[in-house]
Amino acid sequence: MEPEQYERYSRQILFAPLGEEGQKRLVESRAVVVGCGAVGTVLAGLLVRAGVGRLRVVDRDFVELSNLQRQTLYEEADAREALPKAVAAERRLKAMNSGVAVEGVVADLTPENAAELLGGFPLILDGTDNFETRMLVNDYAVSAEVPWIYAAAVGSYGVTFTVRPGQTACLACLVESPASGNGGGPAMPAEETCDTAGVLNTAAGVVGALEAAEAVKILSGHAEALSGRLISCDVWKGQFQSILVAREPGCRACGRREFRWLEGEAQPQVTMCGRDSVQIHERGRKLDLEELARKISAVAGAVRTNGFLLRFAVSPCEVTVFPDGRAVFKGTKDPAVARSLYARYIGA
Protein backbone atom coordinates (compact mmCIF):
# COMPACT_ATOMS: atom_id res chain seq x y z
CA MET A 1 0.00 0.00 0.00
CA GLU A 2 0.99 3.63 -0.51
CA PRO A 3 2.09 5.54 2.63
CA GLU A 4 -1.10 7.63 2.52
CA GLN A 5 -3.23 4.48 2.37
CA TYR A 6 -1.33 2.97 5.26
CA GLU A 7 -1.97 6.08 7.35
CA ARG A 8 -5.66 6.22 6.42
CA TYR A 9 -6.29 2.60 7.38
CA SER A 10 -3.75 2.39 10.21
CA ARG A 11 -6.36 1.75 12.94
CA GLN A 12 -7.84 -1.13 10.98
CA ILE A 13 -4.40 -2.55 10.32
CA LEU A 14 -3.71 -2.48 14.06
CA PHE A 15 -6.71 -4.79 14.53
CA ALA A 16 -4.80 -8.08 14.57
CA PRO A 17 -7.45 -10.36 12.97
CA LEU A 18 -7.45 -8.07 9.91
CA GLY A 19 -3.85 -6.85 9.80
CA GLU A 20 -1.90 -5.42 6.90
CA GLU A 21 -2.49 -8.40 4.61
CA GLY A 22 -6.24 -8.24 5.16
CA GLN A 23 -6.26 -4.52 4.45
CA LYS A 24 -4.35 -5.05 1.21
CA ARG A 25 -6.98 -7.53 0.08
CA LEU A 26 -9.72 -5.10 1.05
CA VAL A 27 -8.14 -2.33 -1.03
CA GLU A 28 -8.09 -4.70 -4.01
CA SER A 29 -11.66 -5.99 -3.49
CA ARG A 30 -14.94 -5.30 -5.29
CA ALA A 31 -18.56 -5.37 -4.16
CA VAL A 32 -22.00 -4.28 -5.39
CA VAL A 33 -24.76 -2.86 -3.18
CA VAL A 34 -28.32 -3.33 -4.43
CA GLY A 35 -30.49 -0.56 -3.03
CA CYS A 36 -29.26 2.52 -1.18
CA GLY A 37 -31.92 3.29 1.41
CA ALA A 38 -31.57 3.17 5.18
CA VAL A 39 -29.45 0.02 5.48
CA GLY A 40 -27.73 0.56 2.13
CA THR A 41 -26.44 4.04 2.96
CA VAL A 42 -24.97 2.91 6.29
CA LEU A 43 -23.43 -0.13 4.62
CA ALA A 44 -21.95 1.76 1.65
CA GLY A 45 -20.50 4.49 3.85
CA LEU A 46 -18.79 2.02 6.17
CA LEU A 47 -17.31 0.00 3.30
CA VAL A 48 -15.95 3.07 1.51
CA ARG A 49 -14.38 4.33 4.73
CA ALA A 50 -12.93 0.84 5.34
CA GLY A 51 -11.20 0.97 1.95
CA VAL A 52 -13.06 -1.41 -0.36
CA GLY A 53 -11.36 -0.93 -3.72
CA ARG A 54 -14.42 -0.69 -5.95
CA LEU A 55 -18.07 -0.26 -5.00
CA ARG A 56 -21.07 -0.20 -7.34
CA VAL A 57 -24.35 1.14 -5.92
CA VAL A 58 -27.55 0.24 -7.80
CA ASP A 59 -30.81 2.03 -6.92
CA ARG A 60 -34.01 2.92 -8.75
CA ASP A 61 -35.43 5.64 -6.45
CA PHE A 62 -34.89 9.36 -5.81
CA VAL A 63 -34.25 11.21 -2.57
CA GLU A 64 -37.29 12.44 -0.62
CA LEU A 65 -37.53 14.51 2.56
CA SER A 66 -38.80 11.50 4.54
CA ASN A 67 -35.57 9.64 3.71
CA LEU A 68 -33.32 12.04 5.60
CA GLN A 69 -34.19 10.71 9.07
CA ARG A 70 -32.34 7.46 8.41
CA GLN A 71 -30.61 7.45 5.01
CA THR A 72 -27.25 8.79 6.05
CA LEU A 73 -25.68 9.68 2.68
CA TYR A 74 -28.31 12.26 1.69
CA GLU A 75 -28.87 15.93 2.48
CA GLU A 76 -31.76 18.40 2.23
CA ALA A 77 -30.52 19.69 -1.11
CA ASP A 78 -30.74 16.17 -2.56
CA ALA A 79 -34.39 15.97 -1.54
CA ARG A 80 -35.20 19.43 -2.92
CA GLU A 81 -33.74 18.42 -6.28
CA ALA A 82 -35.31 14.92 -6.15
CA LEU A 83 -31.87 13.60 -7.01
CA PRO A 84 -31.60 9.90 -7.87
CA LYS A 85 -30.22 8.09 -4.83
CA ALA A 86 -27.48 6.40 -6.84
CA VAL A 87 -26.23 9.79 -8.07
CA ALA A 88 -26.32 11.41 -4.61
CA ALA A 89 -24.69 8.35 -3.05
CA GLU A 90 -21.85 8.33 -5.59
CA ARG A 91 -21.09 12.00 -4.90
CA ARG A 92 -21.05 11.58 -1.13
CA LEU A 93 -19.06 8.35 -1.15
CA LYS A 94 -16.39 9.78 -3.45
CA ALA A 95 -16.06 12.76 -1.11
CA MET A 96 -15.47 10.35 1.79
CA ASN A 97 -12.65 8.43 0.13
CA SER A 98 -11.16 9.43 -3.22
CA GLY A 99 -9.16 6.21 -3.25
CA VAL A 100 -12.26 4.07 -3.78
CA ALA A 101 -13.74 3.65 -7.27
CA VAL A 102 -17.43 4.36 -6.62
CA GLU A 103 -20.03 3.88 -9.33
CA GLY A 104 -23.67 4.86 -8.85
CA VAL A 105 -26.08 3.19 -11.27
CA VAL A 106 -29.67 4.45 -11.59
CA ALA A 107 -31.51 1.26 -12.47
CA ASP A 108 -34.26 -1.12 -11.41
CA LEU A 109 -32.78 -4.60 -10.94
CA THR A 110 -34.72 -7.06 -13.11
CA PRO A 111 -34.19 -10.58 -14.48
CA GLU A 112 -33.15 -9.00 -17.78
CA ASN A 113 -30.34 -6.84 -16.37
CA ALA A 114 -29.25 -8.84 -13.29
CA ALA A 115 -26.20 -10.36 -14.96
CA GLU A 116 -25.12 -7.00 -16.36
CA LEU A 117 -25.45 -5.16 -13.03
CA LEU A 118 -24.19 -7.89 -10.68
CA GLY A 119 -21.71 -9.79 -12.85
CA GLY A 120 -18.01 -9.41 -12.13
CA PHE A 121 -18.46 -8.73 -8.42
CA PRO A 122 -17.41 -11.43 -5.92
CA LEU A 123 -19.86 -10.15 -3.28
CA ILE A 124 -23.42 -8.85 -3.52
CA LEU A 125 -24.87 -6.79 -0.67
CA ASP A 126 -28.52 -6.19 0.18
CA GLY A 127 -29.61 -2.61 0.72
CA THR A 128 -33.02 -2.97 -0.87
CA ASP A 129 -36.49 -2.70 0.64
CA ASN A 130 -38.50 -5.58 -0.81
CA PHE A 131 -38.48 -9.36 -1.09
CA GLU A 132 -39.11 -9.34 -4.83
CA THR A 133 -35.64 -7.88 -5.42
CA ARG A 134 -34.06 -9.99 -2.68
CA MET A 135 -35.37 -13.23 -4.18
CA LEU A 136 -34.02 -12.16 -7.57
CA VAL A 137 -30.61 -11.44 -6.01
CA ASN A 138 -30.73 -14.80 -4.23
CA ASP A 139 -31.48 -16.64 -7.47
CA TYR A 140 -28.66 -14.87 -9.30
CA ALA A 141 -26.16 -15.39 -6.48
CA VAL A 142 -26.95 -19.08 -6.06
CA SER A 143 -26.89 -19.69 -9.82
CA ALA A 144 -23.56 -17.86 -10.19
CA GLU A 145 -22.17 -19.29 -6.92
CA VAL A 146 -21.43 -15.80 -5.58
CA PRO A 147 -21.86 -15.01 -1.86
CA TRP A 148 -24.36 -12.36 -0.86
CA ILE A 149 -25.57 -10.84 2.40
CA TYR A 150 -29.27 -10.39 3.15
CA ALA A 151 -30.26 -7.53 5.45
CA ALA A 152 -33.49 -5.75 6.36
CA ALA A 153 -34.83 -3.32 8.95
CA VAL A 154 -38.36 -2.14 9.80
CA GLY A 155 -39.72 -0.60 12.98
CA SER A 156 -37.14 -1.27 15.67
CA TYR A 157 -36.25 -4.70 14.26
CA GLY A 158 -33.45 -5.77 11.95
CA VAL A 159 -32.04 -9.00 10.54
CA THR A 160 -29.05 -10.08 8.47
CA PHE A 161 -27.78 -13.39 7.09
CA THR A 162 -24.77 -14.25 4.94
CA VAL A 163 -25.49 -16.66 2.08
CA ARG A 164 -22.58 -18.70 0.77
CA PRO A 165 -23.86 -20.88 -2.09
CA GLY A 166 -23.02 -24.53 -1.57
CA GLN A 167 -22.08 -23.97 2.07
CA THR A 168 -25.04 -22.33 3.81
CA ALA A 169 -28.78 -22.04 3.51
CA CYS A 170 -30.03 -19.46 1.01
CA LEU A 171 -32.89 -16.98 1.30
CA ALA A 172 -35.27 -19.40 -0.42
CA CYS A 173 -34.52 -21.93 2.33
CA LEU A 174 -35.69 -19.32 4.84
CA VAL A 175 -38.85 -18.00 3.19
CA GLU A 176 -40.04 -20.67 0.76
CA SER A 177 -39.68 -23.80 2.92
CA PRO A 178 -42.79 -25.44 4.46
CA ALA A 179 -41.56 -24.28 7.88
CA SER A 180 -41.74 -20.65 6.73
CA GLY A 181 -45.49 -20.94 6.24
CA ASN A 182 -45.17 -20.14 2.55
CA GLY A 183 -45.55 -23.70 1.32
CA GLY A 184 -42.53 -23.72 -0.94
CA GLY A 185 -44.11 -21.48 -3.58
CA PRO A 186 -42.84 -18.25 -5.09
CA ALA A 187 -45.52 -15.97 -3.63
CA MET A 188 -44.22 -13.85 -0.77
CA PRO A 189 -46.13 -13.33 2.48
CA ALA A 190 -47.30 -9.82 3.32
CA GLU A 191 -44.60 -7.82 5.07
CA GLU A 192 -44.50 -4.64 7.10
CA THR A 193 -42.74 -1.81 5.26
CA CYS A 194 -41.01 1.34 6.46
CA ASP A 195 -43.72 3.42 4.82
CA THR A 196 -46.52 1.72 6.77
CA ALA A 197 -44.84 0.62 10.02
CA GLY A 198 -42.05 3.19 10.28
CA VAL A 199 -38.40 2.51 11.10
CA LEU A 200 -35.87 3.73 13.64
CA ASN A 201 -32.60 4.94 12.17
CA THR A 202 -30.81 3.05 14.92
CA ALA A 203 -32.26 -0.27 13.70
CA ALA A 204 -30.97 0.43 10.19
CA GLY A 205 -27.63 1.54 11.64
CA VAL A 206 -27.11 -1.65 13.62
CA VAL A 207 -28.07 -3.93 10.74
CA GLY A 208 -25.98 -1.96 8.24
CA ALA A 209 -22.96 -2.22 10.55
CA LEU A 210 -23.43 -5.97 11.03
CA GLU A 211 -23.71 -6.47 7.27
CA ALA A 212 -20.61 -4.35 6.67
CA ALA A 213 -18.64 -6.39 9.23
CA GLU A 214 -19.56 -9.62 7.45
CA ALA A 215 -18.63 -8.06 4.10
CA VAL A 216 -15.21 -6.99 5.38
CA LYS A 217 -14.53 -10.55 6.58
CA ILE A 218 -15.24 -11.94 3.11
CA LEU A 219 -13.45 -9.22 1.14
CA SER A 220 -10.34 -9.29 3.33
CA GLY A 221 -9.98 -13.06 3.00
CA HIS A 222 -11.23 -14.00 6.46
CA ALA A 223 -14.34 -16.02 5.66
CA GLU A 224 -13.52 -18.30 8.60
CA ALA A 225 -14.63 -15.45 10.89
CA LEU A 226 -18.17 -15.31 9.45
CA SER A 227 -20.91 -15.88 12.02
CA GLY A 228 -22.70 -18.50 9.90
CA ARG A 229 -25.95 -17.56 11.64
CA LEU A 230 -29.03 -15.44 11.05
CA ILE A 231 -28.67 -12.46 13.38
CA SER A 232 -31.68 -10.43 14.47
CA CYS A 233 -32.04 -7.50 16.83
CA ASP A 234 -34.69 -5.24 18.33
CA VAL A 235 -33.03 -1.97 19.32
CA TRP A 236 -36.12 -0.73 21.18
CA LYS A 237 -36.31 -3.81 23.39
CA GLY A 238 -32.54 -4.23 23.56
CA GLN A 239 -32.70 -7.82 22.31
CA PHE A 240 -30.29 -9.71 20.07
CA GLN A 241 -30.64 -13.26 18.79
CA SER A 242 -28.65 -15.53 16.49
CA ILE A 243 -30.02 -18.69 14.91
CA LEU A 244 -28.23 -21.46 13.06
CA VAL A 245 -30.12 -21.98 9.80
CA ALA A 246 -29.95 -25.40 8.17
CA ARG A 247 -30.06 -25.89 4.41
CA GLU A 248 -33.34 -27.24 3.09
CA PRO A 249 -32.51 -30.40 1.08
CA GLY A 250 -35.42 -29.78 -1.26
CA CYS A 251 -34.88 -26.03 -1.56
CA ARG A 252 -36.16 -24.73 -4.85
CA ALA A 253 -33.03 -22.61 -5.44
CA CYS A 254 -29.94 -24.12 -3.82
CA GLY A 255 -31.32 -27.67 -3.82
CA ARG A 256 -33.15 -28.18 -7.12
CA ARG A 257 -31.54 -25.18 -8.81
CA GLU A 258 -34.83 -23.81 -10.08
CA PHE A 259 -34.42 -20.06 -10.47
CA ARG A 260 -37.97 -18.80 -10.93
CA TRP A 261 -37.21 -15.21 -9.98
CA LEU A 262 -34.15 -14.97 -12.21
CA GLU A 263 -36.06 -16.51 -15.10
CA GLY A 264 -38.94 -14.06 -14.56
CA GLU A 265 -41.52 -16.74 -13.80
CA ALA A 266 -42.17 -15.57 -10.23
CA GLN A 267 -41.86 -11.83 -10.88
CA PRO A 268 -45.08 -9.83 -10.65
CA GLN A 269 -46.30 -9.10 -14.16
CA VAL A 270 -46.22 -5.43 -15.10
CA THR A 271 -48.37 -4.15 -17.98
CA MET A 272 -49.40 -0.79 -19.37
CA CYS A 273 -53.04 -0.10 -18.56
CA GLY A 274 -54.29 2.82 -20.66
CA ARG A 275 -52.25 5.82 -21.73
CA ASP A 276 -51.10 6.87 -18.25
CA SER A 277 -51.37 3.81 -16.01
CA VAL A 278 -49.33 0.77 -15.03
CA GLN A 279 -50.82 -2.44 -13.67
CA ILE A 280 -48.99 -4.91 -11.43
CA HIS A 281 -50.28 -8.48 -11.26
CA GLU A 282 -48.89 -9.98 -8.04
CA ARG A 283 -49.01 -13.78 -8.29
CA GLY A 284 -50.59 -15.98 -5.66
CA ARG A 285 -51.27 -12.99 -3.39
CA LYS A 286 -54.31 -12.52 -1.14
CA LEU A 287 -54.74 -9.20 0.62
CA ASP A 288 -56.85 -8.17 3.59
CA LEU A 289 -58.06 -4.83 2.27
CA GLU A 290 -59.38 -3.62 5.63
CA GLU A 291 -56.04 -4.27 7.34
CA LEU A 292 -54.15 -2.70 4.43
CA ALA A 293 -56.43 0.35 4.55
CA ARG A 294 -55.68 0.81 8.25
CA LYS A 295 -51.93 0.79 7.65
CA ILE A 296 -51.97 3.03 4.59
CA SER A 297 -54.38 5.61 6.06
CA ALA A 298 -51.86 6.31 8.83
CA VAL A 299 -49.29 7.54 6.31
CA ALA A 300 -51.06 8.38 3.05
CA GLY A 301 -54.21 10.17 4.20
CA ALA A 302 -57.65 9.32 2.87
CA VAL A 303 -58.18 5.71 1.83
CA ARG A 304 -61.40 4.47 0.23
CA THR A 305 -62.45 0.84 0.30
CA ASN A 306 -65.68 -1.02 -0.40
CA GLY A 307 -64.65 -4.62 0.15
CA PHE A 308 -63.89 -5.10 -3.54
CA LEU A 309 -61.05 -2.63 -3.94
CA LEU A 310 -58.97 -0.08 -2.06
CA ARG A 311 -58.01 3.31 -3.44
CA PHE A 312 -55.59 5.96 -2.20
CA ALA A 313 -53.42 8.75 -3.59
CA VAL A 314 -49.65 9.04 -3.27
CA SER A 315 -47.56 11.26 -5.50
CA PRO A 316 -47.53 10.93 -8.46
CA CYS A 317 -50.28 8.28 -8.63
CA GLU A 318 -53.78 7.30 -7.68
CA VAL A 319 -53.51 3.67 -6.63
CA THR A 320 -56.24 1.03 -6.82
CA VAL A 321 -55.60 -2.28 -5.08
CA PHE A 322 -57.61 -5.50 -5.43
CA PRO A 323 -57.91 -8.46 -3.00
CA ASP A 324 -55.91 -10.75 -5.33
CA GLY A 325 -52.87 -8.48 -5.04
CA ARG A 326 -53.39 -6.71 -8.36
CA ALA A 327 -52.83 -2.94 -8.35
CA VAL A 328 -53.30 -0.16 -10.91
CA PHE A 329 -51.13 2.97 -10.71
CA LYS A 330 -52.80 5.84 -12.55
CA GLY A 331 -50.54 8.81 -13.20
CA THR A 332 -47.35 7.17 -14.44
CA LYS A 333 -46.05 5.35 -17.49
CA ASP A 334 -42.95 4.11 -15.69
CA PRO A 335 -43.08 0.50 -14.43
CA ALA A 336 -40.22 1.24 -12.02
CA VAL A 337 -42.31 3.92 -10.28
CA ALA A 338 -45.23 1.49 -9.94
CA ARG A 339 -42.98 -1.30 -8.63
CA SER A 340 -41.40 1.04 -6.09
CA LEU A 341 -44.75 2.30 -4.79
CA TYR A 342 -46.10 -1.25 -4.64
CA ALA A 343 -43.16 -2.35 -2.50
CA ARG A 344 -43.43 0.71 -0.23
CA TYR A 345 -47.15 0.68 0.49
CA ILE A 346 -48.36 -2.86 -0.17
CA GLY A 347 -45.23 -4.87 0.56
CA ALA A 348 -43.50 -7.67 -1.31
Strand-residue proportion: 15-25%
What would the average pLDDT be, to the nearest integer? 90
Largest sheet: 8 strands, mixed
Query: How far is the first residue's CA from the last residue's CA?
Result: 44 Å
Structural class: alpha/beta
CATH topology of the largest domain: Rossmann fold
Helix fraction by DSSP (H/I, runs of at least 4): 25-40%
The coarse silhouette is globular
CATH hierarchy, class of the largest domain: Alpha Beta
Tally of extended strands? 14
Q: What is the succession of H and E elements?
A: HHHEHEHHEHEHEEHHHEEEEHEEEEH
SS element count, helices: 13
Number of separate domains: 2
Give the radius of gyration: 20 Å
Low-confidence runs of at least 5 consecutive residues = 181-190
The CATH homologous superfamily name of the largest domain equals NAD(P)-binding Rossmann-like Domain
CATH architecture annotation name of the largest domain: 3-Layer(aba) Sandwich
* Main sheet: strand order: 3-2-1-4-5-6-7-8
What does it look like?
The chain has 348 residues and is an alpha/beta fold. It folds into two domains: 3-243, NAD(P)-binding Rossmann-like Domain (Rossmann fold), CATH 3.40.50; 269-345, TATA-Binding Protein. It is 34% helix and 20% strand. It contains 13 helices and 14 strands. The chain has helices at residues 3-8, 10-13, 19-27, 38-50, 76-80, 85-96, 114-118, 131-144, 171-175, 194-197, 201-219, 289-300, 335-345, and strands at residues 30-34, 54-59, 101-106, 124-126, 148-154, 157-163, 230-234, 239-243, 269-272, 277-281, 303-305, 310-314, 317-321, 327-330. The strands form two sheets. An eight-stranded mixed β-sheet has the order 3-2-1-4-5-6-7-8, sandwiched between helices. It has a six-stranded antiparallel β-sheet with strand order 9-10-14-13-12-11, covered by helices on one side. Helix 8 (131-144) links the parallel strand 4 (124-126) and strand 5 (148-154). Helix 4 runs parallel beside helix 6 and helix 4 crosses helix 11. The longest helix has 19 residues, at 201-219. The chain is globular.
